[in-house]
Design a protein that fits this description.
Layout lengths: L1 H5 L18 H8 L10 H17 L8 H26 L3 H8 L1 H4 L15 H17 L1 H12 L5 H4 L2 H32 L12 H18 L2 H11 L4 H6 L1 H15 L4 H25 L22
Helix pairs in contact: 4-7, 4-8, 5-7, 7-11, 8-10, 10-11, 12-15, 14-15
Length: 317
Amino acid sequence: MKESRTQPSPPPAPGLLPEAAGERPEEKRERDRPEGEPAAPEKVNASGAAGEEEEEEEEGGGQAGMPLRDHLAELRRRLIRIFLLALAGFLAAYPFGKEIYDLLLIPLLKVLPISSKLIYTSVPEAFFTYMKTAFLAGLFAASPLIFYQIWAFVAPGLYREEKAFLLPLAAVSAICFLGGGAFCFFLVFPLAFELFMSYTTDTVQAMPTLHEYLSFVLHLLVPFGLVFEMPLVSFFLSRLGLISALGMRRIRRYAVLIIFIVAAVLTPPDVFSQLLMAGPMLLLYEVSILIAALFGRPPKPADACQAPGGATAPGEN
C-alpha cells in the first residue's frame, strides 16, 4: 500500500482540462493552433482599443454612452433651474409691474386718440395683467442665465473645442433674444399701432382693455425674440454638420413658405403683423446662410464620394 502511494502519477488524459495538467489556457490555445493561422489578438490590445474608444468618447462629451435615464435626469435638473430662474426674475420684477406696464404702453399712447383710453372690464383684470407683465419682464431679465442652462444641457454632446463656445453661445443667445424684443418694441409696435388706431372716427373710438393690449404685446415680443435666434441656431447646426449653406440655398423656396406659415401662427390674426414678422425672418434666413457658409464644417473630400476601386458612387453622375 505504501508503494502504491509513492508511485508517480500518470500523465493527464487527453480529455482532461488544461488547468488539471498545470497548463495555462493561453499556452494550450497556442499549442493547438494550426500552422499558418494568425495568432489571436491579446487582451491587452483589446483593452487598449477600449481605452482609445473611451478617450474618444470623453472628447466627444461621453454622451454617446450616456443612458436615457441620465439624459432625463439631466433634463429635469435643467428645467428645474430654468423654472427657478424665471421665478426669481418674476419676484424681482413684481413690485414694479405697474411701472413696467406703463413703459409697454408708450408706443400705443403716442398714437392713441385723446378721447380714447385703456379700460379693464373685470375686477381682477388689472391685478393679473400687472402680474403677467412682471413675469414677462423677469423672463427677459433672466434670459442670459436661462440660455446658459439650455446650452449646458446640450454641452455633453459636443467636442472639447466646441464646449469652449458655451459661454459665448449663452451670451449671444441672450443678446439675440433681447435684440428681437427691442426690434419689435421700437420698430414694429409704432407701425402697427399707427395703422390700427387710424380707423378711429368721431363715432368709432378705440377702447382697448389692459388684458387685450398685454396679450397683443406678448404675441409679438416673445416670438420676435425667438425668431432672432435663427442665425445662432444656424451656426450651431452648421458646426455639427447637420446643415450647410448649399443645402439652405437649395430649399430657399420652401423656407419662404415655411416662414410665412410660422409668422401667421406666431403673430395675432392679422396680415399686417404677419408681414412685419415675415420680413425680418426672410432677412435672418439669408444671414443664416452666410453664417453657415463662414462657420460650417468644410465639405467632405471628393474621393469620399467615390466607391472603392475609383468607381463613382451611384447618384453622383
